[in-house]
Every structure is written in C-alpha cells, then in structure tokens.
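Dear all,

This email documents one entry for the complex benchmark we are building for the journal club exercise. For each entry we list the sequence lines for every component of the assembly. Then comes the predicted three-dimensional structure of the complex as a token string, followed by one or two observations. Please use this as the template for your own entries, and keep the labels exactly as they appear.
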Amino acid sequence: MTVFSRRPGFGAQPPQTNPFAYDVSRHSRVDPALVHFSLVQQFRGPAGARRLAVGPDQCLYIAAGTSVHLYDAQGRPLGLKSLNAEAHAVAMAGDGSLYVGLRDRVAVFAPNASRAVVWASPGERTWISGVAAGKNDVFAADSGNRVVLRYDRSGKLVGRIGGRDTERNVPGLVLPSPFLDVELHPDGLLRVNNPGRHRVEAYTVEGDLEVVWGKPTAAIEGFCGCCNPVSLAILPGGDIVTSEKGLPRVKVYSVHGKFQSVVAGPGSFPENARIGAGGIAPNGMRASLDAAADARGRVYVLDTATALIHVFARKPEAAFGRRHAG
Amino acid sequence: MSSPENPKPPLAAGTLAEPTMNPTPSDSTPPVSRRQFLRDGLRAAGVAGLGGVAGLGAARTGAREYYWQIDPDKCVRCGRCATECVLQQSAVKCVHAYAICGYCELCTGYFNPEPNALNTGAENQLCPTSAIRRTFIEDPYYEYTIDEQLCIGCGKCVEGCSRFGNGSLYLQVRHDRCLNCNECAIARVCAGDAFRRVPVDQPYLLRTAPPAH
C-alpha cells in the first residue's frame, strides 16, 4: 500500500501523541528496591516453548512443539523426548518419571525411557495447561473444564478439584484464557491459580479449599489486568512465584500471600509487553510467562513471545536481608 | 487498474490518446486540406477524450470492487481512526468477537486501568463515550456489547483488551458508513500500516479464534 505523506498546509497534521492512549506506564516501572533478583543468565529455548519445569536432577524440561526438550542448568541442550502430539505442560516426579500434558491426555515417560505411555482422555473439552507430580498422585490443570484432574500414578482418574461446589464452599475456577496451572507445595497442599478471580488458591488433594489470597490491581502487590496470574512456581523455602501477562512481571509471595519481592518487571520482557496478551508473537505464540525454580532458589522464566529463558538469582544483599529478617 | 476483465489499464483523465491521425499520402488518397486535417484531428481528439473519460469511469468502477479495511493483527491502536476520518464521526468502529471473549468481571476493555469499583460508574469506564454496555450474565461473567452510535473508533478499549485479555475487541471499518474514499484519510496516517484494500465480497477481516497457546 502506498503511504502518502501529508503536504504542508493540507489538512490537519497527524497527532504526535494519542489522545486516547491506554496508559499503564506508571506500572511498567518497578521500584528497584522491590527487585530482589538479578538476571544471571539468558539463553534461547526451543521454538514454540509453552511451559517449563525443573526436575530433581536440576535439569530444565521445556514443553515445546511435539517434544520435551532437556537443558542443563547452564542452558546447554541435552536432548529431547518426542511425542505425537503438542506438549502443553511438563513436570517430573521425584523418581525421575516425566509427565507431559498433551491437549487432553497425560503422557508418561518412565525414567530413561524414550517412549511414552499415554493415559486415556477424560473428555473432548479437556485442555491441559499445567502438570504437577507428587509421590502418589499426578495433577493436570484442565483449562477446558476449569478443574484440576487428579490421577494416581497408574493413570486412573481419581478426582476433580476446583470445580464450583457450593456445598464445599468452592466458588470455582474462572479462566478467560487457557492458563490454569497447578503446583504441589511442600506443605502438602496444591496451589492453583484462579486468573479470573485474580487469586491463588490452596486445595487439599481431596479438593477442599483451604487458603485464598490475591487481589486485582495494577499495583505491584496485586495481579493486573483481567486474568492473572498465569503460572506458579514454588521456591525451596516454600515461597510462591507468580507470573503475569499483559504487564509481564514475576513476583514472590509468602505461603500466606504476603507480597515479598519482584523477580523481574515488564522492563525485562520488552517484546512480551509490546505484543500484549491478546496479540500474536512472530513465533505464533501468545505472549505470556512461565516460571520454575531450582533447588538453589534460582528462578527460570520462559518468555513465550521470544522463547528466551531468563535465569534470575537472588541478589546477595537481598539474601542477607532475608536471612536476618526473621 | 488491471484485471482479467480489463487487461489494459484505462486511461487516466487528461491523458492523450496515441496519435491515430497519420495520413500517408498515396495516389488513391486525395490530398487533405488543412481545414480537413484540423477537423478530423479535433474529431479524433474528442474520441480520445471520451475514451479517457470512459477509462476514468472504469477505474472508479474498479475501485468500488475493493473496500478499505483494518488488519486487526497490525493495528497499533494509535487513535487516528477517531481523528482522521473525513466523516465527523469516524466510520471505524469497535467490533466484538464473542467467541474469543472471556466475559471477564474485570474487563480491561471496559474498565480503566485502576477503577474505583467494578461497576458501571462513569468514573470507572475506559470508553470516552460510554459506548460499551456491560450486562451481568451469571457470577462472575459479564457480557460487553458495543453501541455503534456512540463508538468513535478511538481504540482505547481495543488496547485494554489486547494488552491483558484475548483481543476480542478490535477495530473495523463499517461499510454502512464508510465513503470508501480513493485515498483514505486514515490509511494515509495509520501508524501501524494496518489499512488495506479487501474485496467487496469479503469486506471484513474478522477474528474467529484466539491465538494459540
């Protein structure tokens, strides 16, 4: 298309600023005093990366395309495990079994196995977007049905968690977009994000709702936009890492939901922030973040818009203050 | 404009036709007087001029086979659709892809970034003309509809929805209003170069599915 330039004196000049701007610039900047982590490493992950997890071996497992890619802690690729369907999420159990969420099924790689066993689909509407593995159970976050599926280790579906149940006082998960995540906390409770309600919820493995925290606000202590957080991770001490889209930021909360610190703000993910949650990145992915933590407390953040893995470590002065705070 | 039906581009207005008057004197041809030459020459020029007018008409007819439209994936919500259209109220309107919408309680296309409360108070609304209606469906879901009589196409709601949500709100040129100017005043200054010509039988660039995740 030809773009014509305006001639001087012909009509109004184009506006230099947008009088209808949607301004969240105030929240795009994060108070440096709140940022307790610094970037220590960055490397490019596989194309189409969606979710990542850190295994007990401290290696990084990334669900991307129809594979799970394995990287060491320095970001060196070590191999991959192939599937015959898109890998949406990944988790590794303590014994080395690898659980991969496909669209509507869970695939299991036994330790050192190259071929997966795929469990039966619970239904057509199932859209798995997160996986967590415990000693006796495997949990799959089903965005399509707005529940967390509980399986035993043999693949038998034994429960559904988080669905609306007035008798058990469970209001239900609200998912405007498919970003349900689940993590198994060391305290034995599941942590599930409820993006439409801007909350993190704690459930027993039987499905009782125990703890709820989080509030909607663009301010740093809350969850911004229409539907956040989009993913969770657990730090070694039990603190909870949340990731948000729209204003891409990663933060740490205490186990009771008290805001602790910022891992990375929107300035760390400029391309993600520019595209926005509703846009499509050049790689065809939606712009969101996923995080995982290793045993040393380093936080790995996957930016799906760029497929970059950002590795953050706690600043020494922040670690010192944290040790002496309580 | 070249097309399979019109392989040759029509002549633009004022373009002179190729000289067809090139009499070659021969024995069988009587000599042409100066008066005859001028009369035939004017007649030929008139025919050529008519051809030019016809060509212009064809060009305009050809232009009507295409409409201006906004590619929602290129739109950067610069606000110029509201200020640059030759119509007093822009022909660009916000449209809503309900299949993509999350029916959010806190719709970032409806509420300003820091609302006092999640209600329909004017101070909480993002739209400068209150062109979005919010209707309760069931807890916690709300439906949002665009009042096109009020919408000025500023794209503020589109930015809110695209930044945080699924991008179900987006801008389109409404052809019941658009004059389909040959040189669209908005397209000339579109910051995202999002305006393009589309065939009249496919006049809208609709969003039907959310981006993959």
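Observations: Residues 1-32, 46-61 of chain B have pLDDT under 50 and may be disordered. The radius of gyration of chain B is 27 Å.
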